[in-house]
# Entry
Amino acid sequence: MTPVRRRAALLRALYGPDRGTGVRIHLPITPHPHPHNERHAPRRTALRELADMGHDRFHLTIREYAPYDKVDPVHANGSFPYRNRAFDASGSTKDMSRFADWVSDHYGKQLEELFWNGSGARNIDNGRRVGRGFVSGHTDHVHVAM
# Structure
C-alpha cells in the first residue's frame, strides 16, 4: 500500500468516510511532543475534539456551538460561529486560563482564533500569537475558532 493510500485509510478509520465538503474538517498537521526524541510526531484535531475536551476535562460550559448550544444571532454575517467553526467556553477563571493555555500550547498553529483576556491572557489570530489588547472583552469566556 502506498503512503497516500495508507494515510487515506487511516483518515477513514479515524473520521469515517468523506461525505463531501464541510462534513469532515481536516486540519494541518502540528507538532505534538514525542517521548523518545526532540522531534515531534504529527497530531491532528478537530474543533469538536477541543469542545469536548473543554467540557469533559476542564469542566467548562460550551456555548455558541452545535450540538452543545444554538448560535445566538449577534455575530457578523458569515462569521465562524454561524459556520459551526467556533465556540465559547466559560467556567471558573482558573479552568478557563488552564484551557486557553492547553489549547494554545498544543494546537495554536491550527487555530484561526483563540481569545482569552482573563488571568494569563492568550490570544491567537490565524495561528500566530497576538497581544492581550488584540480584541476587547473575552474575560468571561475563551473563544476558539478553527
Summary: The radius of gyration is 16 Å. The beta strands are 30-33, 40-43, 61-63, 86-90, 113-116, 122-125, 128-130, 142-145. Residues 66 and 84 are 7 Å apart (CA to CA). The first helix runs from residue 3 to 15.
